[in-house]
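Write out this protein's structure.
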Amino acid sequence: MFEAIKLLVGVVSLIMVYRTITGNCNKYLAFAICAIWLRYFLSAFHTITYPSLVAGFSINALGSIGVAGLGLLLIPTAVFTLKKLFPFYVFFTAIAVSGFVNMQIPGTINVVLFLSVGRCIVFIYTQPRTE
C-alpha cells in the first residue's frame, strides 16, 4: 500500500515538474530540476533501487551516472576549453589515474561521477540569466 502511495506522489510530482519546465525555463535549470526529481524518485523506492544490479552498481548509481553523462553532453563544448578549468582537469585526471592504478574501479567511478555532477551544477549556476 505504501509503495502505491509513493508511486502516486511520484507521478503527481512528475506532472508538477513537467508543468514547471515547459514554461519559460532555462534548459540548464530544467535539466537540474529533472535530475533532482529523478534522484528523489529513485531514492523513494530504496528497496528496489539500492541493491546491486549491473557491475556492482545499483539502479540509483546507474541513474546518477546517466544524469551526469547527459549533463556533460548538455554543456556546450566551448566551455571545456576554458583556461580556468585546467586545474580541475589536472585534479580529475590524477584521481582517475590513481584509482585505476590502485584497481579501485568502482570507487574511481563514484568520484568521477561526483566531480562530473559538480561540474554540471557549477556550469548551471554560472550561466547568465536570459529572461
